[in-house]
Amino acid sequence: xxxxxxxxxxxxxxxxxxxxxxxxxxxxxxxxxxxxxxxxxxxxxxxxxxxxxxxxxxxxxxxxxxxxxxxxxxxxxxxxxxxxxxxxxxxxxxxxxxxxxxxxxxxxxxxxxxxxxxxxxxxxxxxxxxxxxxxxxxxxxxxxxxxxxxxxxxxxxxxxxxxxxxxxxxxxxxxxxxxxxxxxxxxxxxxxxxxxxxxxxxxxxxxxxxxxxxxxxxxxxxxxxxxxxxxxxxxxxxxxxxxxxxxxxxxxxxxxxxxxxxxxxxxxxxxxxxxxxxxxxxxxxxxxxxxxxxxxxxxxxxxxxxxxxxxxxxxxxxxxxxxxxxxxxxxxxxxxxxxxxxxxxxxxxxxxxxxxxxxxxxxxxxxxxxxxxxxxxxxxxxxxxxxxxxxxxxxxxxxxxxxxxxxxxxxxxxxxxxxxxxxxxxxxxxxxxxxxxxxxxxxxxxxxxxxxxxxxxxxxxxxxxxxxxxxxxxxxxxxxxxxxxxxxxxxxxxxxxxxxxxxxxxx
Length: 507
Hints:
Elements: H1 6-23, H2 25-30, E1 37-45, E2 51-54, H3 57-64, E3 72-82, E4 99-106, E5 115-118, H4 121-127, E6 134-143, E7 157-163, E8 174-177, H5 180-188, E9 192-200, E10 202-205, E11 209-212, E12 221-223, H6 224-227, E13 235-241, E14 248-249, H7 260-266, E15 273-275, H8 281-284, E16 289-293, E17 296-302, E18 311-319, E19 343-358, E20 364-375, E21 381-387, E22 389-390, E23 397-400, E24 407-412, E25 421-422, E26 428-429, E27 434-435, E28 442-451, H9 452-462, E29 476-488, E30 491-506
Parallel strand pairs: 12-13, 21-24, 22-26
Antiparallel strand pairs: 1-2, 1-3, 3-10, 4-5, 4-6, 7-8, 7-9, 11-30, 13-18, 14-15, 15-16, 16-17, 17-30, 18-29, 19-27, 19-28, 19-30, 20-21, 20-22, 20-29, 23-24, 25-28
Helix pairs in contact: 1-4
């Protein structure tokens, strides 16, 4: 049997879907399982100046890890469609769930180094002809298309197609945008407007890069020196300083009824509690312990068994790759490197403080997120911190770290911080003897944002005491980010923290 052209397949599939929906209409009404949605993610190549779409999460992860070569970064734009093939039996857009979108790639040696997407059968048929310079790859997703008027149905989001008009250089590339602002930007750059290509279920912004501290506590409660050693750990880790590592899983006889003494100290109720050693709950809850699973964590610090240092802490941490081998993919994270548009860092988490106690004069207890940057030119490190809670007076801070000598630039969650923007809860004053008025703790959602110019102010401030640091934001990569829960001297901290993330987002 002769092969059926993809263009004919688009036509037949459209007719078949409509027929099946009519034939099975009573069953669909009785057992309406929505079709699975697909998030269509846009990438940009900083070397080629090309745009690319994928609806395949596996391909997306591969591109992020360098499988498509250097220069590919997310733009922060995406839109929703349906999967191909359709899975389910009901769509949100009425009886017509749309058409399959054919994905083509420039034929090696003939066509451009670019991808092209179309749901138009005639267009696909033309591209399949010998000598077109294009090769069919696959159907990428299913989406509605404009009606006879060229417009999308009410409730759907138009996705415009723009063309770079570089056919004469065999460098054709198209971009598919749902943002009117981006459409205008591309037109101002000389791209040609080719009208509405798709009608998506919705458009949504996504992070350009996103990192979440979601820890497997069964094997990632480790000394800080190990958590921060990229040869031993990359990604999330629970870093312990100057304290016994609480790695013993408390064995409740009834997991759904964990003893309340743990909840009383962190405000978190969970079946997964890791203590310093096996023993009665009343004893274990007085020591340092951590609890929870994945991105939802409870932390209790008690310094009764601390080491020689005056500084004791337990810190959820995310370690990045900071080195790269010659010829290997560069997986380092440069927040102000080359991207499709202006970006900014967004530090987010929800935190509640349950208890704070100090046991000796001169002691202090406090908590703050820390981003550790490395200047690739000088090799020097820089800490940026935002005080979240503590017995210390909230204020901006500039000094070398007393243990590492690295410069610290610190601020607080407040509306007039000079180093960025605080968008959530303000810094919490928690004096010694603090006990939350709420069972779950006192706090809420915190968010801090910092763009390139605001980071420039951080650098200018840091260089007043460490002039060897580079003045250029693009020279800085991220070593790690962590949430520092620390006691200086002797005391106790009990907190819970959820969804601690560092995102790079479009401005």
